[in-house]
Amino acid sequence: MTRNEALYREWLEFVGEFLQHPFAAHPHPEEEISKRLTVSFNAACCSRSSVGPDWVDHMEGCWPGDYLPKLPPGPRIPDATWQPLLRWYAVSGLSDPQSLARVPGQVADWRMQSEWQELARPLGINFQLAIPVLLDGPVHRAYLLARPDREFDQDELTLATVLQPILTGLYRQLAWASEDTSTDGPGLTQRELAILGLLGQGLTATSLGHHFNISPRTAQKHLEHIYRKLDVGDRLMAVQKAARLGLLDQALAVVTNGRV
Fold first, then answer.
1. Which of 60, 77, 222, 229 suits 37 as a labelling partner, its CA being 20 to 30 A distant?
2. How far is 39 from 6, CA to CA, in rounded Å?
3. Burial, 105: exposed, middle or buried (Cβ in 10 Å; 0-12, 13-18, 19+)?
4. Cβ atoms of residues 46 and 38 within 8 Å
5. Which residues contact 88 (CB under 8 A, 6 or more apart)?
6. Alpha-carbon distances of 203 from 35, 56, 161, 186, 207, rounded to whole Å
7. pLDDT tens digits for 96-121?
8. Strands 127-133 and 98-99
9. pLDDT tens digits, one per residue of 58-96
10. Which domains does the chain have, with CATH numbers?
C-alpha cells in the first residue's frame, strides 16, 4: 500500500467518525481537520482563508494557532491578487489544488514572486499548497498548507486532489452545524410541523391536501412557508435540515398524536 493510499484510508475513517456523531460531539472540528491535513502533508501549518469579490484575503483559522500572525508584517497587501498562488486562481478561474512553485511566470512574474518570498520567508511559509473548498457563490475558500524547507511534490498534489471533495463535504457540514447552533429555531406552527412530518414520509402536495382536507394550492403555500423558515429550496432539503435540527422526530410526533 502506498503512502497516499494509506492516508486516504485514514481520511475515510476520519470522515466516517464525523458523520456518525453530531458535530457538537467534536469540540474543535476545524482544529481536528487542520491538524490532520498538517500531518498528512508534512506541513508546518494549515490555515483556511476566504477571498470575496473584492479580492481581500481573510484568514479564518490556522493550526497551530500561533504559527502565523493575524496580520502580516510589513506593508499592507492591497488585495489577494498580489499573492502569487491566489493570483493564479483569480486569473485562471480554475479550482484544482495548486502549489506556489507551480504558478507560471506568465501569471506571477519574478518580481511578484520575490516580493512574496521576502514577506513569506520570515514566517516560514516559503512553500505553499492550496486546496480550494468547492462551494457555490462568489467567495473563494481554500485550505493552505505551508512549510519552510521544500516544495510539495506531485504525490502530494495528487493526494490534495483526492482529498478535495472530502474537505468540501466536511466544510459544508461545519457550515450547517454553525448555522444550526446559531439559530433559535425556525418557528414552525403545529400545522407546519405536521406537514413536515408527512413530507418525511414521502407525501406530495396533493396527498397533503387530501390528508388535511385542503386544496393542493393551500398545501403548496404551507410548503413555501416551511421552506422559507428553514431557508431551503425543496422538500428533500427541508427533510434533511429538519433531521439535523432535531425537528423531524418532533414533527412525526405531531402527526402520530394528531395534534392538528
1. 77
2. 13
3. exposed
4. yes
5. 94, 98, 103, 107, 108
6. 44, 47, 40, 21, 6
7. 999 999 999 999 888 888 888 888 88
8. antiparallel
9. 777 788 877 876 555 444 455 666 789 888 988 888 999
10. 3-181 (3.30.450.80), 190-257 (1.10.10.10)
Separation between Cα atoms, residue 5 and residue 177, nearest integer Å: 30
Residue type, 256: T
What's the distance, CA 124 to chain centroid? 26
| Residue pointed to by grid coordinates 519574478 | 110
